C-alpha cells in the first residue's frame, strides 16, 4: 500500500533540546490520521518536518515518495494549515482566493468559490473581521482548493468554541470523502480525533509510543482489573502499557493479539481516550519507577 509519510530514525533538535527522537513510522494513504500527545510532545515539529518547513537533525523522512518541500511539484502535493488557522487580516476573502490561485498550480477556483458561498462567507469582508470559526473555514478552504494529495492540519480547531469546532470538523469530514484526501491532523482534543480519525499516532516525550488503525488498536488493548498482581506474573504475550495498584487491587492496560480467558481478571474495553491516556502515562510511570530505584 502507498505511504503518505515514512520516517526512519527521525530526530529534530532545537539547541540542546530534543523535540523529536528516533521517530519511525509508516503511514498508509487513504486515512485521516490523528496525531495526539501532550503539549511539547513534538507534534508540531513532526508536521513541520512533513511540510518541508524544517530539516531533520538526523534520520530521514519522505512524504508521498519525495523529500518534503524539495521541489515545486512536491510542495503542490501537500496542503498545510498551521496552528491558529493563519490568514491575512488585511485581505478580503476574495483576495485570499486570488492569492491562492497565483501561488498554487493545481488551484481549484470553482471549488473554492462554491465552498465560500456555501459557508456564507462574504467575498468583500476582510479576514480580520471574521469570527474565529469563519477564519478557520477560510483557511481550510485555501488548503482544500490547493488540491493536495495530503492535507496537514496542526491543531486547527483548538481555539474555536464547541459549535465552530463541530462545524469545522464536519466540513473536514465532508471534504475528505468528496476529494479522497489523506489527512494528518494534530490535536490534543481526543474527542475531535475520535470523531474524524481512523488511524492514530500517540507521541509522548518526543517519541512515537504507538501507531496504527484505530479499530485494530482498540481491538488489541484491554483493561484488566483484579487482585493485586505483579506484572511479571502476566503472560508473556500481554504487553503492559500502564499499571495502577492499590493495596489489594491491580489495574493494567495491556496489548495482546490473543484472547484473555483468565477468570481472575475483569476485562473491559477501552475508549480511544482511555487508550491515549494509557500511553501518555507510560513514560511518566517509567520515570517514576527509575526515580524510586535511584532513591532506593
From TrEMBL:
SMART domains: AAA. Pfam families: ABC_tran. Keywords: ATP-binding, Nucleotide-binding, Transport. It comes from the Bacteria. GO terms for molecular function: ATP binding; ATP hydrolysis activity. CDD domains: ABC_DR_subfamily_A. SUPFAM superfamilies: P-loop containing nucleoside triphosphate hydrolases (SSF52540). Residues 5-230 form the ABC transporter domain. InterPro entries: AAA+_ATPase, ABC_transporter-like_ATP-bd, ABC_Transporter_VariousFunc, P-loop_NTPase. Gene3D superfamilies: P-loop containing nucleotide triphosphate hydrolases. PANTHER family: ABC TRANSPORTER ATP-BINDING PROTEIN ALBC-RELATED. This is ABC transporter ATP-binding protein. It comes from Nonomuraea zeae.
Amino acid at each position: 500500500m502507498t505511504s503518505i509519510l515514512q520516517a526512519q530514525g527521525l530526530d529534530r533538535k532545537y539547541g540542546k533540546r530534543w523535540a523529536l527522537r528516533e521517530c519511525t513510522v509508516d503511514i498508509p494513504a487513504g486515512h485521516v490520521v490523528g496525531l495526539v500527545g501532550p503539549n511539547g510532545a513534538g507534534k508540531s515539529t513532526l508536521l513541520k518536518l512533513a511540510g518541508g518547513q524544517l530539516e531533520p537533525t538526523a534520520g530521514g523522512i519522505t512524504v508521498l515518495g519525495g523529500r518534503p518541500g524539495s521541489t515545486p511539484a512536491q510542495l503542490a502535493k501537500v496542503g498545510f494549515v498551521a496552528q491558529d488557522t493563519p490568514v491575512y487580516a488585511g485581505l478580503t476573502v476574495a483576495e485570499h482566493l486570488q492569492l491562492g490561485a497565483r501561488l498554487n498550480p493545481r488551484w481549484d477556483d470553482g471549488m473554492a468559490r462554491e465552498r465560500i458561498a456555501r459557508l456564507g462567507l462574504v467575498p468583500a469582508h476582510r479576514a480580520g473581521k471574521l469570527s474565529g470559526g469563519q477564519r478557520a473555514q477560510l483557511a481550510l478552504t485555501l488548503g482544500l482548493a490547493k488540491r493536495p494529495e495530503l492535507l496537514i492540519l496542526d491543531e486547527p480547531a483548538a481555539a474555536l468554541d464547541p459549535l465552530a469546532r463541530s462545524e469545522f470538523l464536519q466540513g473536514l469530514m465532508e471534504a475528505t470523502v468528496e476529494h479522497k484526501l489523506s489527512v494528518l491532523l494534530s490535536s490534543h482534543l481526543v474527542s475531535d480525533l475520535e470523531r474524524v480519525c481512523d488511524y492514530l499516532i500517540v507521541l509522548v516525550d518526543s517519541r512515537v509510543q504507538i501507531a496504527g488503525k484505530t479499530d485494530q488498536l482498540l481491538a488489541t488493548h484491554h483493561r484488566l482489573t483484579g487482585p493485586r498482581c505483579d506484572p511479571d506474573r502476566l503472560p508473556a504475550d500481554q504487553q503492559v502499557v500502564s499499571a495502577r495498584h492499590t493495596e489489594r487491587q491491580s489495574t493494567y492496560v495491556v496489548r495482546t493479539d490473543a484472547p484473555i480467558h483468565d477468570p481472575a481478571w475483569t476485562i473491559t474495553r477501552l475508549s480511544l481516550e482511555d487508550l491515549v491516556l494509557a500511553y501518555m502515562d507510560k513514560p511518566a510511570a517509567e520515570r517514576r519507577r527509575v526515580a524510586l530505584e535511584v532513591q532506593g
